[in-house]
Amino acid sequence: MLPFPFEISATEGRARTGVLKTTRGDIRTPAFMPVGTAATVKAMTLDQVKQTGADIILGNTYHLMLRPGPERMERLGGLHNFMRWDKPILTDSGGFQVMSLSGISKLTEEAVTFSSHIDGSKHVLTPERSIQIQADRLGADIVMQLDECVAWPAEEQRAREGMELSARWAQRSKTAFGTRDAQALFGIQQGSTFENLRRESSERLQEIGFDGYAIGGLAVGEGHDAMCEVLDYAPEFLPKDRPRYLMGVGKPIDLVEAVYRGVDMFDCVLPTRAGRHGQAWTWDGPLNLKNARFAEDQDPLDAEVPCPASQDYSKAYLHHLIRADEILGKILLSWHNIAFFQALTAAMRAAIAEGRFEQFRRDFRARHLKA
């Protein structure tokens, strides 16, 4: 018995819309998960995040295990209680940040040993420890297996080694997780840009059996076209009756093309990171509010996005805030960007339900790529 039922309500081609039902609320798919790296979605209050329509957020195991620490987090009532978020939370395993941010000292069959990017302290992360931190200390609703994300580009042999290690760690993660009624465990498909490796990874994950499946190892520098080439086949290797989560993606056009190919869930730091640096994502593409052309533009940022930050402030005012390095500018653009990504997924859900997603995709590409 799977803990979280996944009900697909409509399909168009490979695109689908539905609901993943959790004990803390429904997740409407396609879904975009704002990233709450260190128990906060940067520059936003959780009331603002909720107002955008987000059903779920993501927490980063690596950052939280270093600060404030998993045992302290447990004493404080878990991540939901700590940050006062009562909806679902998905936590990543910590593996990607270990590979990308820390000074790695050793990667072995047993574990990855690394140095904190904060103070240089040594830590050991095993599949079992990752599960313990996510499920028992943080109390995440959706837990991810520990995997190795191989850097791109990779030779096939190196990609195979990472895929096979990830598959062995998937089994250890599943054993450590056991069976739970109110939490789900997702396995992660690996294999870089090699179709045969992606197929084999999927087969091994399904033999183990997971509540959902992620597509890992993309958005690591391969570019949009190469990513789409992998997504032409990778989602189809995964079970059709379980959610498919594309990790770390991405730009709006990436989301639309991935949904077209059968993906259900996404996360990315892009909306808030872009907002903190003066970039706004709109239906007509990205805008750089630092540009002088906005200095006297009294139009709202994007009147089509149902968010106060999008509708109630002029581009001229936002331009001023960004150029003056005012904190409010970072807040408003982050809020708008998260709202835009939620508006985008809501529009995709509606288009699939109404049988017009292919037209939506064509219109979006024409409008979004002309910028």
Question: What can you see in these coordinates?
Answer:
- This protein has 371 residues and is of the alpha/beta class.
- Helices cover 42% and strands 20% of the residues.
- It contains 15 helices and 16 strands.
- It has helices spanning 46-51, 61-66, 70-75, 78-83, 95-101, 127-138, 156-177, 195-208, 224-231, 252-260, 270-276, 308-311, 315-323, 327-353, 357-368; strands at 6-12, 15-22, 25-29, 31-36, 57-59, 89-91, 103-107, 112-115, 122-125, 142-144, 184-189, 212-215, 244-246, 265-268, 279-282, 285-288.
- Strands 4-5-6-10-11-12-13-14 form an 8-stranded parallel β-barrel, surrounded by 5 helices. A 3-stranded antiparallel beta sheet has the order 1-2-3.
- The radius of gyration is 20 Å and the shape is globular.
Kindly state the percentage of residues in helix.
40-55%
Total beta strands: 16
Query: Which ranges are low-confidence, i.e. pLDDT below 50, for 5 or more consecutive residues?
Result: none
**pLDDT averaged residue by residue:** 96
Overall outline: globular
Strand content: 15-25%
Strand order of the largest sheet: 4-5-6-10-11-12-13-14
Largest sheet: 8 strands, parallel, barrel
Which helices and strands appear, and what pairs or packs with what?
Elements: E1 6-12, E2 15-22, E3 25-29, E4 31-36, H1 46-51, E5 57-59, H2 61-66, H3 70-75, H4 78-83, E6 89-91, H5 95-101, E7 103-107, E8 112-115, E9 122-125, H6 127-138, E10 142-144, H7 156-177, E11 184-189, H8 195-208, E12 212-215, H9 224-231, E13 244-246, H10 252-260, E14 265-268, H11 270-276, E15 279-282, E16 285-288, H12 308-311, H13 315-323, H14 327-353, H15 357-368
Parallel strand pairs: 4-5, 4-14, 5-6, 6-10, 10-11, 11-12, 12-13, 13-14
Antiparallel strand pairs: 1-2, 2-3, 7-8, 8-9, 15-16
Helix pairs in contact: 6-7, 7-8, 10-14, 10-15, 11-14, 13-14
